[in-house]
Amino acid sequence: MGRLAYLQIYRGREYSQRAEAQRMRPPQTVDARRGLILDRNHKILAVSIGADAVYALTESVRDVPETARQLAPYLSLSTDQIITLLQSRSTGSVWLGRGLDPPAAEAIRALSLPGIFLVKRPQRFYPQGDFGGPRFRYSGLG
Asked: Helix, strand, coil % (nearest 5) of the chain?
């Protein structure tokens, strides 16, 4: 009974905040794996490949300007653009880059920045060039 009173009275606020943070976490979507598209001669017209993407949990980023300065060389964003994205704390998480080349992804991973995460996301690739893209409707995030 004493332990229950201790947890409810003295630690209640802490546990309440932790529970709300877990409950209010933004929903995560799972990208569906897309299949091959072949022509009648079984030549590949479209294929999905795994590409690295980087995102930030804005509440977990400790030093926004320093994090932006370290990420800028590897992303197609300026330091100021990254700072603006990292300071948009209303969303909880923000995409910083998609379709990263493997050396850039490894360099970002090696930085081990708090609040910065990499994930593999499917990306459509058209071996025949732009021939197939318009016919199969490009899909993805801008």
From this structure: 40, 25, 35
Query: Which region holds residue 107: left if phi is over 0, alpha if psi is between -120 and 50, else beta?
Result: alpha
State how far the alpha carbon of 133 is from the alpha carbons of 56, 78, 123, 127, in Å: 30, 29, 12, 10
Among the listed residues 57, 51, 56, the one whose alpha carbon sits nearest the alpha carbon of residue 121: 51
pLDDT tens track for 17-70: 888 777 666 666 666 677 888 888 888 888 888 889 999 988 888 899 999 999
Domain ranges of the chain: 30-136
Q: Which helix (H) or strand (E) holds 21?
A: helix 12-23
Task: Read off the DSSP letter of residue 27.
Answer: P
Fold for domain 30-136?
Penicillin-binding protein 2a (Domain 2) (3.90.1310)
Residue-level pLDDT at 141: 46
